[in-house]
Design brief:
alpha+beta; 5-stranded mixed beta sheet; 19% strand; elongated
């Protein structure tokens, strides 16, 4: 039982420290803080506005009483002026309360209102707005001098009138707002937390996948680098351990040379991928004749094919030149990767075929080989870094990762299938740059001519047609 509780507590701690949970917690804390500040501001603003409204109503009633009211005798209000009872009766709101005092501080009776609760002595000479307790209720009051009796020359005795209104309505409105905010607060917090958690998981999924791939990449790179270094170190140690014959030294140096070249290729690929990942902008794209580039790549790999007695061929087909817009160096690197893989996996006396074609608004390059092919379940992973679909020695699994980076950056699309030669068919399709070619011709630049098929369509290991 204790072990299960400990395991659950550990799982809970790990869950709390995950990136999505931390994002959700911090987002929820920020929203809760803002909500509480806004809630306090709303309560203060509403309370201030209601208090100002009450003060305005009290001031209006006080002016009316001072101007027209004679609470100790029947009065003659001016035409259109509300009666004393209308002002204090609260027909359309909270009733106003009124107290009238003589110069000695004695409260005077009023004809048109019911007697309010006694006013505290400290408030009988009040002028500005003030909140006092009357009969256990908070009341907002305001006072002014008041004529008690009149003569032909005007008032002869001044008393004091105080008008007030209960603030229970303000407190009730404030309490209602606070209750509403308290009900909304946990609902809002839960919605924000789970919403942020869901978004965090969705956003963190590719980040976590990229992090795992980065860790795998680092581990695989370390392994691939360590292998040739271990061989070189072992050969050097063995050669220096004791005097040997010249042939033995030569064999050691030959193995060191092979591993050094392998190490150099691996470092070059890693540096290329690192520069590609870090570069904010790709190199300048140019109008490129893909047929010319493919012909050059075939000629470059012809010696490689001859050493393995392989046949390598290529052709350009279609009614228009296979023009695309891309960095030429990148396309050359892509063709090199495809031809290197095709020659490596075709084996001795195998065959490699390169075709470039235009089809409407598209340009297609396809490299086929007579090797073992790529299993359907492996075709989605062959572009992963350090992933190899075959155990054939000589590669580190970075070539197609580089090729995929070039294809994606230049707007191309992969198709991996089976070749009639028996092996794999790696095909890339790009949009044809016909509009750019026409624009170049209109600007006075010569338009690119369609590239002619290079060499015989099929060439044997000696370079003669077959």
């Amino acid at each position: 039982m204790n072990e299960r509780l400990s395991s659950a507590a550990e799982a809970g701690r790990r869950w709390v420290h995950t990136v999505p949970t931390q994002v959700a917690l911090r987002s929820t804390a920020a929203v809760a803080t803002v909500y509480l500040l806004l809630s306090m501001a709303v309560v203060l603003i509403v309370g201030h506005n209601l208090a100002a409204s009450v003060d305005q109503r009290i001031a209006t009633g006080l002016r009316s009483m001072v101007t027209y009211g004679r609470p100790s005798a029947p009065r003659q209000p001016a035409q259109g002026v509300p009666g004393f009872g209308d002002l204090l009766g609260g027909r359309f709101g909270t009733p106003l309360l009124a107290w009238v005092f003589d110069p000695d501080g004695n409260e005077q009776p009023q004809l048109e209102t019911r007697p309010p609760p006694p006013l505290p002595a400290s408030a009988r000479q009040v002028t500005g707005p003030k909140t006092v307790s009357v009969g256990g209720t908070e009341v907002r009051v305001m006072g002014s001098a008041f004529p008690l009796r009149y003569s032909v020359d005007g008032p002869v005795v001044d008393g004091w009138v105080v008008v007030g209104q209960s603030t229970a309505g303000i407190a009730q409105a404030r309490d209602t707002i606070v209750v509403a905010e308290a009900v909304v607060f946990p609902i809002l917090v839960l919605l924000v937390f789970f919403g942020a958690l869901a978004v965090g998981h969705r956003v963190a999924r590719p980040i976590e996948r990229a992090r795992r791939r980065q860790l795998e990449f680092t581990a695989d790179a370390s392994h691939e680098l360590r292998t040739p270094l271990s061989v070189i170190e072992a050969e050097a140690t063995l050669a220096l351990s004791r005097p040997r014959e010249a042939d033995s030294y030569r064999a050691s140096f030959a193995r060191v040379d092979v591993e050094s070249k392998r190490l150099r290729r691996l470092v070059d690929d890693l540096l290329w991928l690192a520069r590609f990942d870090a570069a904010p902008d790709p190199p300048d794209a140019e109008l490129v004749d893909l047929g010319v580039l493919a012909a050059g790549a075939v000629e470059r790999f012809r010696p490689v094919a001859e050493r393995r007695s392989q046949r390598i061929s290529g052709a350009v087909t279609g009614p228009a030149a296979p023009m695309i817009t891309a960095p030429p160096d990148w396309l050359d690197r892509l063709l090199g990767v495809l031809l290197d893989n095709a020659c490596r996996y075709s084996g001795e006396a195998g065959e490699v075929r390169v075709s470039v074609a235009t089809d409407g608004s598209q340009v297609r390059v396809s490299v086929e080989d007579s090797g073992p092919g790529i299993a359907p379940e492996q075709r989605e992973q062959v572009f992963d870094r350090f992933h190899r679909a075959s155990t054939t020695p000589g590669g580190a699994g970075l070539g197609l990762a580089i090729g995929d980076a070039v294809v994606r950056a230049t707007g191309g699309r992969w198709t991996v299938g089976d070749s009639p030669l028996g092996g794999a068919a790696m095909t890339v399709v790009w949009p044809r740059a016909a509009a750019e070619r026409t624009a170049r011709a209109d600007d006075g630049h010569p338009a690119a001519e369609p590239s002619a098929p290079w060499s015989p369509a099929v060439t044997d290991s000696k370079g003669t047609g077959s």
